[in-house]
Write a structure and sequence with these properties.
mainly alpha, 250 residues, 80% helix
Length: 250
């Protein structure tokens, strides 16, 4: 497929912006996939190409947040490991599920999450220090398995569930939860990319410049998240949750 230089330029500009936002709250696939479909990519190629860009979106912030000592590796690693395993099983189950029913369920969960955050204005703004003992690690494993399985089945709003889980269960701030979400997001997307490549569902003419622009944007997004702090991330997070709720319910 031939794509004009102008189209690639526009895609890269959008990628730069989405990379910045994705570094903070994720969920860029919800915009990138329709955009790539609009310029003429088949849906499978749009998804595969977009997933390659997500790797660029997550690698830079993961390294940056880790350098700022914001990632709780003792919980992020067991969470990521089980999420990686169960996401594959979820993709197998996805073939037999009704997508519209799942969208309604996810939309309902988004409403519940936004309500909890709005009812508790201080949630995610101050860290609730919790020792990393057997119980938190075990819960991290279970939570990772559930979210990984869901990601394999559907995937819409995965980052919302990861961030909210780390805040509600582990007492993270929004900034810490965002930082800790990068590793599982990176691994879950990375494991599915080879399959899309093998089937020829990645358009490298678009994927390479899009990934580079998304990675560049993600660096500035990560810096912005650290500079602006939890209240800024909280506002973006609530806005994203509302948009996802409307998308899946309406």
């Amino acid at each position: 497929m031939d794509v004009s230089v102008l189209s690639i330029g526009i895609i890269c500009l959008v990628g730069l912006f989405l990379g910045a936002m994705g570094a903070i709250i994720g969920s860029t696939l919800l915009v990138i996939v329709p955009m790539l479909s609009f310029v003429g990519l088949p849906i499978q190629a749009a998804i595969g190409t977009a997933k390659v860009s997500v790797i660029g979106r997550e690698v830079i912030p993961a390294v940056y947040f880790h350098s700022k000592k914001l990632v709780k590796m003792g919980l992020a690693i067991p969470f990521s490991t089980t999420a990686l395993i169960t996401s594959w099983y979820g993709s197998v189950v996805a073939l037999s599920l009704n997508a519209s029913t799942l969208e309604t369920i996810v939309g309902g969960f988004m409403i519940i999450i936004s309500a909890i955050i709005l009812i508790n204005p201080k949630i995610g703004l101050q860290e609730k220090e919790r020792k990393i003992t057997f119980l938190p690690i075990f819960i991290s494993i279970i939570l990772g398995a559930l979210i990984g399985f869901y990601t394999g089945i559907f995937g819409g709003g995965t980052n919302v569930f990861i961030i909210f889980g780390f805040i509600l269960i582990f007492g993270h701030t929004f900034l810490q939860a965002t930082a800790s979400s990068k590793l599982p997001n990176l691994l879950i997307n990375a494991i599915s990319v080879p399959m899309f490549i093998a089937k020829g569902f990645v358009n490298w003419e678009i994927a390479i410049p899009l990934t580079l622009s998304t990675a560049a944007g993600s660096y500035f997004g990560a810096k912005l998240a650290v500079e602006k702090g939890n209240k800024f991330i909280r506002a973006l997070f609530v806005a994203l949750v509302f948009m996802l709720a409307l998308k899946y319910l309406l």
